[in-house]
Amino acid sequence: MSDNFGASKLADRFGVKGYPAVFVDDILVACPRDFGYFREKIGLGRYAPWQNSDNQAKFKADLTRMIDLILAGKKDVARSEGEAASSALSQLRTLPQLALTDLNGQPLTSNQLAGRAVLVEFWATWCPPCRSTLDWLGELKSKYGDKLAILALAVESPEDKIHSVAASLSPGLRVAVADAATAEAFGNITSVPTMFLFDRSGKTARVVYGAPPDLHAQVAELLNSLAD
Known about the structure:
Elements: H1 9-14, E1 22-24, E2 27-30, H2 53-71, H3 75-85, E3 99-101, E4 107-109, E5 117-123, H4 128-144, E6 148-154, H5 159-166, E7 174-177, H6 180-185, E8 194-198, E9 204-209, H7 215-226
Parallel strand pairs: 5-6, 6-7
Antiparallel strand pairs: 1-2, 3-4, 5-8, 8-9
Helix pairs in contact: 2-3
């Protein structure tokens, strides 16, 4: 417990940059957008508008369930439910349409990714866990080659720092700055790192929030079936 939000290890782990954020143990239950606070757009979250008594009751019920599951020794169930519900990302069924330009000035579109497994990592220069994950993604790209497309999409970061980080990464990663439309298409990204995995048909295979201790194992096991 810390009154200094910037000193929160959980906030660092999940890349949460604003208030309010609610955790039960190390499970992220709700982030700012869930309460309707995202880039000054009020009303987007699953508990928004927060002034509504029904939404407050829903949050209390969801929080109570998380606590009950953990106290019952069902932390894995709590984590799974929390991840599925967080920021309504469970609604993302397929790879959204992309219309970006990467840092090399080349167009980056969804059509270029057809027929391959796709990993999309949202990251920021101010997020410590993001950097180690990006280095590891370079290793994955070396292992799977053209069978796997990896997109590293930066959010809420100074452009010069994005270029600085990108210069040290594997050249196999496609690095771009995610505009507001892209962040919204993926569920209004408000915490990093957030990783999406899509199969060769473009269907969502896994969403991973933060940098859990078993991140590498989770992704490696799934990629064995997606990219081979």
